[in-house]
Amino acid sequence: MTTGKKVDQSTLQFNRASIMTLLLLGFLLSQAWLVAFVGAVMIAGTIWPQAGLFKQIYLQVLKPRGWLKPNLIDDDPASHQFAQGLGGIVLALGSLGFALGAPLVGWAAAWVVIVLTALTFFPGICIGCLIYYQLARRGIRLPMPI
Length: 146
Prior knowledge:
Blueprint lengths: L5 E3 H20 L3 H16 L5 H10 L9 E3 L2 H23 L3 H19 L5 H11 L9
Helix pairs in contact: 1-2, 1-3, 1-5, 2-4, 4-5, 4-6
């Protein structure tokens, strides 16, 4: 679906790589706080896209130095924001699991986000985007900041 808008795929890929890396580190090092941190970053970036930490690292550090090059394509940014928000909610629920003494719930939530992010990062299958478009086809419009 095209909207006449451009999305920098390099920004999205760096965001995805950051999410996967931090969640995997959290799991490997048994640092549940990283799950909460990544979830908070994802939710903040969904509500206010310019506040996205990983996006800002890309825009302020990696892109200006030429370490990553922009890859603009016609795409709907709202679908990606929806997917990120969904992932952030899953991580928030996982963090609640940690807080309530149910680490299995926390790590399961982290692994759901890791796997779904990897599906988007590697073969380019964005399940959150597919959900967004299916909801739109059914006339359900979600208020997503642009």
